[in-house]
Batch of 3 targets.
Target 1
Amino acid sequence: MAGRTVEFHTVRRTAGLLEVQLEKKDGTPAKGVVVIEGSDEAPHHAASTDAEGRVRFRDLRAIEHRVRGYLSQGGAPRISSAEMSDAELLKCRKTVFMQKARVTVGKTTEVTLREREVGYVRGRIKLPPGGKPSDYAVSSPGRDAAPARVVYDRDTSEFVYGPVAAGEVEIYLQHLAATPRVIYQKCPVTAAAGKVVRTVLDPAAWEKTSKERLSWKWMAVNPNRSS
């Protein structure tokens, strides 16, 4: 109507809620701490679970979050050296792996973090004639693989990767003298729960497929061997 001011009524949109259940391997509730990793889009959050292993995070941004759980009783050890013995690695064979959870505006997203039995991968690089361990680097897929990590010994070419869940995992092998240096190959290895699997990566089997990309074969030595 002429002469009347038009009014707009906005609807207040709230953030979402994330409810996390922390469990032991057998599915029973576990006490511990749940962490939501911070990022450029959202801050870091952490909270202890209640007696039933639950924790709620309110007013989270409606994006995908990385959620981690840590049981009060502890978990698989963090690799500190490639010289760690199999017995040290397998002292505790269980851990909780990171999960991604997408929070929706005005809704409750539920996530269950359950402890899983883990294993490790131990290996070395088969150096070509004249090759040095420092010519290479071995790494993991990054944040999505946590708590797994690779420790590579640049003096011996030996490495340890874990803790990882049973099944196929990937190890990244990089030749630092290659051009460009960012080229690496994903080397698949089959991990086993409660075991340390051995593998050997063979750079001599590299096959150049283009000027920008290299690929190579890998070979496993006695992959079912464990301590």
Note: The chain is about 0% helix and 45% strand.
Target 2
Amino acid sequence: MNSFSRNVEHNGKAALNSYYRTSAEICQFLALIVLLTIGQGALYAARVIPEPFLIQMEQGYGVIAAVVEKATELPVSEKEKNVVRVYDVRFRVEEILAQSIVGGPLPARKGSTIDLRLAVGYGSEIENFCVFSTNGSEVLGEGKRYILTVKYNKKNRTYEHARGASAAHGVTSFDPDVRRFYRKIHEIADAPPDGRVKRCRQLLLEATAGSSMEAALRCAVLQWLLNRAEKSRDEGRVGPDRPTKSEVVETRRLLMRVWTNSTANYIIEDLIDLDYYCRAMVPSFDESAERREVWLKHLFAPIPGGAPADIRARVHERVDRGFFLLSDLAKKQPKLVGLYLVKELNSNNWPMLFRIYIAMQLRRLYEFETNVDPLWEGALQTFYEKAIAVADAEGLSSLASAFSTKPHVSRRGKGRGFKARFSLEESLGKALQRMREEERKATATRQFIKETIRKIEEVLQDLKKAKEAK
């Protein structure tokens, strides 16, 4: 995580692991970009997806970097205290990061103060999932830094903050990259509609892969383009605010061009963002060869060598971040993805632990897919027999969990289980003996080896009961 990433303090754990996530959820980028706008009241019951940040600027919001001077908690009911706390907060302005482009500039200046009413809790401007154990000094203590998205009400001479989960972003410092990001966003928002579209498209083509600030810009631009594409279906819109069909078609072509030609050096998180927007805007993308080929290239890129612990960490990182996409690809194109998994499972170029995870994907496909390729089972049989003989404790733990005498029931398949054609008892018995020998030598990993031994013993016991029942 670079300095741009480290500057954001997350006020609660992200629970955004679903694949079919919203555009705000997919754009997790540091909570600096995603503004999850919800109702107008001070107390919130649920999160609602907001307009993209560029559109908030079109609505008259500006962005201020400010420091807390004083926070006063307001009374709420005892029941509400477990959900949300409400504060009147006085901030000292440090800097105007992005001036409003509608309704005149924000009157705030460096050194001046502004007063805002903010909520702390689930779905609140300052999101915290454990609000019942939180007091204001933790998140709104004197000297705490925030990036605030505000609008000025000339009639009442008051400021209001954009509503939504994590709409007020706590930061450790006002990083130069943050300034550059908002300056770029302001430049795009300040252009006329036609110029805004051109600038967004140009930014997509020029964005540097792997740069957090460029990734943030790309994500904000993609949100705006998606929102604009959706407006093309709104018959009530007229004039430049409603894009033409030809504009939407051109945007789709651009996305496919970026996906096919410009993603070679993207990190997986950036590719997930782009994948979401391509699926949302290009109807044929979800099951396309272009999507499959780019993802397989990334998910099966060479894993750098190094010490065993480093290799294991890289394997887990690859699997944890991207293998849910592999499952989705397999559902959409089972034959092609299954053939690819067989090829990679048979390759000795991968660490054993990575091959075990590949086997998990192929086995899931074998058990749950209606039309099964005979190659899938053959590859699994060959791999499992060899893997049990050589895998370490971590690998054997996963392998032991993979075997059960009970069939796996699937809504899509017919409850097809996997049955080893080799002597599973003999293979696991030898592995068990190997683990017991390692347990006697081990120190730091002894407890994990014990757990692996327990799993293997349970599988052997299940196999014995099944044999006695026949």
Note: Residues 1-45, 407-414 have pLDDT under 50 and may be disordered.
Target 3
Amino acid sequence: MKIAVIGGQGGTLGDDMVSCVIKDWLTELGVEEIQYSPPFSEDAVKGCDGVVLGGCGIIYDEGVVLDVVGNAQRYHTYILGAKKNGVPAIGLGLGWQGLPLTTGRKLWVETLNCLDLMTVWRGGTKQYLESIGVKTQIIETTDLGFALRQKGSAVECDVALLSHSPRLMAVDCHRPEWEKPLLEKISFSLKAISQNRSVVVVPFVKETSELLKIAVSCQGLLIDGEPQRILGAIRGTRTCVTTTLHALIMAATAGRRVLALYPPSPLKPKIRWMVQELGVRALPFDTSWQRIAEEIEMAENDNPPNIEFQLEQNRVNRKILCSWLEKL
């Protein structure tokens, strides 16, 4: 059996976490050949037995994420191409970030209505998709990232900063006004606590960046690599400071205490929703570095977030995938 997995194009933690989980599940369920993000064309999945549209907050258009143009068109071409070629498709762990453009909404409705069924994040994704005309069966579960499995050994350390992909952070045009001071503030915060604590900085692609400068200034260790090894490494950390949704999910999956930093409203509501879901500490990006440092100290007395519900919901995701494969 040959299955194509269509998801984020890689280079971010969420894309890489979700692709690892789906590949692991498909392998365990006996799929002999897995094709991840095949060359972009209408006939890309021709010859496959099925297509998995995989996870993360991929339901958005260029009106939400300015540096990713044509996101809605990309998935539309893949999935309608699958339908044209008679290839069944399913959606797993999908999340909605926003569709302000009429064209984007139309493309996503057509795309999702070609799926056999889909599972989505809780927190309003199902209700929104149904309100704009999606007729495919929708089952509420959770993000696939909670099912990531660790590899490698833990790195003993007091505080870990899990931040954006350096590839994205290094380009000024990709950084909104409210985000530009973030690294500087985190740098000051880590300096403030690193006098009596060890610090580790975790970016998610192998490129020199401002995060490397922060790590050096704090005499911290810079960890990089595949998501399973990063997950294994941070299990030795007491507290994680996160700036993205999947950094938060990874920290919770590792059983660490968390301080989540989030962008101002109305941007990235998915982070604030997950903060409420997990019951962890959170501060907006525009908080002073002194307050961030104080909150990190207080977080060290918290209990790690309980993710039993999320683990159970991902067992549901896996069972749905298994049942779908059996019907192909």
Note: The first helix runs from residue 13 to 28.
